Amino acid sequence: MALLVAWGFMRITRAPSLAAIFAIGGLFWLSILLALGGLDSFTRTNFPVGDTLSSTPQNPRTPPDTAP
Questions:
Q1: Distance between CA 52 and CA 54 in Å, rounded?
Q2: For range 26-45, the mean pLDDT
Q3: How is 4-48 classified by DSSP, letter by letter?
Q4: How far is CA 25 from the centre of its chain?
Q5: Do the Cβ atoms of 27 and 2 come closer than 8 Å?
Q6: How far apart are CA 9 and CA 18, in angstroms?
Q7: CA-CA distance, 21 to 18, in Å (whole number)?
Q8: What is the mean pLDDT of residues 16-45?
Q9: Where is the composition biased (Polar residues) (predicted)?
Q10: Rounded Cα distance, 57 and 68, in Å
């Protein structure tokens, strides 16, 4: 769709060469930003919150709080 807009509506093929260079650079930069945004979900880690990460309780005989 970006190519359709660039070549169809912006008429990049008939524009000066500097405009074509900037259009290609913009598409390149957009692809870098989209790739980094897509990789964000792969680099996140989920740490469980609960008894395994908390410190040891002072009184182990007390039952844990339960929601009603």
A1: 6
A2: 86
A3: HIIIIIS-GGGS-HHHHHHHHHHHHHHHHHHHHHHHHHHH-----
A4: 21
A5: yes
A6: 17
A7: 5
A8: 87
A9: 49-59
A10: 22
pLDDT at site 32: 94
3-state secondary structure of 51: coil
Residue 10, token pair as written in the block: 């912006």
Residues ≥6 apart with Cβ < 8 Å to 12 = 6, 19, 20, 23
Provide the pLDDT for residue 33: 93
pLDDT tier, 29 (very low <50, low <70, confident <90, very high otherwise): very high
Which residue do the tokens 């930003």 mark? 33
What type of residue sits at position 3? L
Using a cut of 0.85, tell me whether the model's pTM lies above it: no
